[in-house]
Amino acid sequence: MNRKALIVWGGWDGHQPREVAEIFRELLANESFNVEVSDTLDAFLDAEKLRQLNLIVPVWAMGKITNEQVKSALEAVQAGVGIAGCHGGMCDSFRENTEWQFMTGGQWVAHPGNDGVKYRVKIGPAKNAITDGMADFDISSEQYYMHVDPAVKVLATTRFPTADGPHVGNGPVDMPVVWTKMFGKGRVFYNSLGHQANIVSLPPVLELMRRGFLWSAA
Hints:
The chain is of the alpha/beta class and about 220 residues long. It is built from seven helices and eleven strands.
């Protein structure tokens, strides 16, 4: 039986949520998922339907979520449904909702230098099938400075500072880029790369997402 995935897209248009959702839909379909795509957070309201899923993929930057919507999503993941996403579509989704942040494992707070910063993504330190055999790579995009749950398993990092900003005086820090965690019985995967569709489509980024989807849905 094919696994079931729900992609929910919307929020800030600058992250091209419609285009990113389509990339993810095609990726999951190629992995034999039955994929439903929705442009409303009301897709979270059917609690029973959510529990029948293998994977939830949020592509929703900023915006607001109601208590009823987030409650169903949180309960589904705690019951064992995987959740996986990238960039602001998962960890800058609902800035006022700390329960969502508790589930996802982090929250965007800054991107010094804005878009077009050249930086390196270093694989590790934690080992996981998601990054097995992958090499470090360079990228030119937003470099996400995150507030991160100390419980996450960090699969890739980037070094700050690269661009100037108020963080520079703190010296070098390795910021998580890719991580996993558990939320109840649910597997959580996050990748901070993916500012727009062209970044999501880059081979190493897309491969990380493919592996992360499969791991979360297992």
